[in-house]
Amino acid sequence: MAELMVDLIITLDGCASGEGWPGWWGLEGPEYLAWLQQEARTERTYLLGANTYRLMSGMSEDAAAGGTGYSEDESASLTGLAAVPKVVFSSSLTAPLQWPNSELVAGDAVEAVRRMKQTHAGPMSTLGSLSLCRSLMGAGLVDRFRLVVFPLITGRTGSERIYDGYPDVALEMVDSRTFDGRLQLLEYIPRVIDAPQRRGQA
Questions:
Q1: Domains and their CATH numbers in the chain
Q2: Rounded alpha-carbon distances, angstroms, from residue 21 to 26, 78, 158
Q3: Using CA atoms, how far apart are residues 127 and 45, in angstroms rounded to an integer?
Q4: How many whole angstroms separate alpha carbon 25 and alpha carbon 145?
Q5: What do you get for the CA distance between the two ends of the chain, in Å?
Q6: What does the pLDDT profile of the chain (202 residues) look like in tens digits?
Q7: C-alpha R_g of the chain
Q8: Burial class of residue 176 (count of CB atoms within 10 Å of its CB; 0-12, 13-18, 19+)
Q9: Which residues 6+ apart lie within 8 Å of 63 measured at CB?
């Protein structure tokens, strides 16, 4: 069975973005960007929704055209995404998709991913797409839950609150590391639970 990972970047208070803040909240560093490039070379299929597709395909195209808003490392990460397989879940987009190696799935995303886990040959990972991640977690389809936590609280400007609408989830930590002395990677095996658990319960 193919492994599915939800992969997200967040502030300490659980937001995916914030009004007025740049990408990565301006806190990305060379270690983190080098890791992103390495991750882009890992063989996996990326799953994303329409909004993330529009955003990331536009950024990738702009970086490939020499857009001046990106550092060399950022451009390498963005342009590298064109070469990897991507599955886009959307009822608003139409085929063929212009971003290379992108397949459109118009039906129910949860059921499609359930089938893909049974038949897909390699690992899969989400790319952004908060509502898709929420649905997959709620359906119990997520095998790994990986976060990179940025050292920032966006209580006033934060948006896209990641955990709103999530079920209760127990997390078993399987990996952690620090990038650039400030960004914290946390990787867990998630397990959706029905009720709060008392200490000592499995």
A1: 4-193 (3.40.430.10)
A2: 7, 19, 9
A3: 10
A4: 21
A5: 24
A6: 889 999 999 999 999 999 999 888 999 999 998 898 888 778 899 999 999 999 888 888 887 777 666 677 677 777 778 888 999 999 888 888 988 899 999 989 999 999 999 998 889 999 889 999 999 999 999 999 999 999 999 999 999 999 999 999 999 999 999 999 999 999 999 999 987 777 666 5
A7: 17
A8: exposed
A9: 70, 74, 75, 78, 79
Give the Cα separation of 25 and 120 in Å (integer). Answer: 34
For the question of whether the overall pTM of this predicted structure is more than 0.90, the answer is: no
Sign, Cα dihedral of 87, 93, 94, 100: negative
Residues 6 or more apart whose CB falls under 8 angstroms from that of 113 comprise 4, 47, 124, 136, 141
Token output for 158: 């934060």
10 within 8 A of 150, measured Cβ to Cβ? yes
